[in-house]
Amino acid sequence: MPVYAGIIAFRNLLFDKKILKSKQVNAKVISIGNISIGGSGKTPVVIYLTDLLKRNGINVGVLSRGYGRISNGYLLVSDGKKIFTTVDQSGDEIYHTVLDCKVPAAVSENRVNGANQLVNDTGIDTIVLDDAFQHRWIKRDLDIVVLDQRFLNDKSFFVQNLLPTGILREPYKSIRRADAVIYNRKFMEGTPFPSGLEKYVKDKKVFTGYYKAINFIDLKQKTVFNLDEFKGQKSLVVSGIAIPKSFLNILSQTNVSVTNKLIFRDHKKYSNKDVQLIRKRFYTTNSHSVVTTEKDAVKLMNFSKELDDIEIFYLKIKFVMDDEESFRNFILKN
Asked: What is the DSSP letter of 123?
């Protein structure tokens, strides 16, 4: 941990002193990131922000690293009308974003080159950078950090420490270089900002938001069902996200049993072996259906043929800002 902390501190110092320089691209850049590994809720916030910009007439696109993808380099995922890649080629998060927002999008490890190429390919003038708080090579107009309420309140030694001991990418003091903070309570009741951490956000714009469950959608038929239609249903819950507890909690709140579940690691790449495991568990437990997350659904769609005799539904959620008007004004005026 001391070695990692030293590397992070030295690298940030080089950027702060302008020895290492961020590069300007030919577009307005808004970065959405965090200071911990996974589970803060960046993707729903990226979708929320992108949709907000789009609804206000802004020609926006999304650029991501494409974590977990099988491709390398720059890859145009969509021009806003057509998707050019598979979920495996682009990564599940950007694919999910494109399906929801229908905007131009690309993946690239090099954000500067990727941003310039995306602008050239699609003509957008605003870029939402997904998971880019630590990627300081690209100059951004707004830097927004998403903080997960559950994470902030977890005092575990193996959480509240820098990698590799804990899950912090950077120390809390790094929040000071952000322009705004989004405090994401997900499906939980709101709690005050933890004492001892207020000093890092006292001069920042702080917004709060949460997840709202919308409905269940049939994976194959795209039929929409109300939440109450799944009450009391015995389902097999399948999840491959960073913090499945939030997903399980909201299912419980909608009276869907979560006793029968298969929990995979984050960014799970489903294989035929995994699909056979799902099939086996489904039939041996006499489940009525499979219920999964939207992030998992975009990958399980590849196995529609293998799962054609099983009803699969995903829970549609969206991020909701408590004070959307203030956030809208902040975004559009900066």
From this structure: -
74 shares a domain with 222? no
Q: 226: domain CATH number? A: 3.40.50
Our CA angle for 239, 240, 244, nearest 5°, is 60
Q: Are residues 168 and 81 in the same domain?
A: yes
What confidence tens digit (pLDDT) does each residue in 88-117 have?
Answer: 999 999 999 999 999 999 999 999 999 999
Boundaries of domain holding 262: 213-317
**Residue 251, CA distances (Å) to 142, 192, 256, 297, 301 in order:** 35, 25, 5, 16, 21
Whole-number Å distance between alpha carbons of 319 and 262: 25
| Tens digit of each residue's pLDDT (9 = 90 or more) over 259-297 | 999 999 988 999 999 999 999 999 999 999 999 999 999
User: Domain containing 88 — which CATH number?
Assistant: 3.40.50.300
Measure the CA–CA gap between 204 and 175, rounded to whole angstroms.
9
CA 288 to chain CA centroid, Å, is: 29
One domain for residues 200 and 231: no
Count of the separate structural domains present in the chain = 2
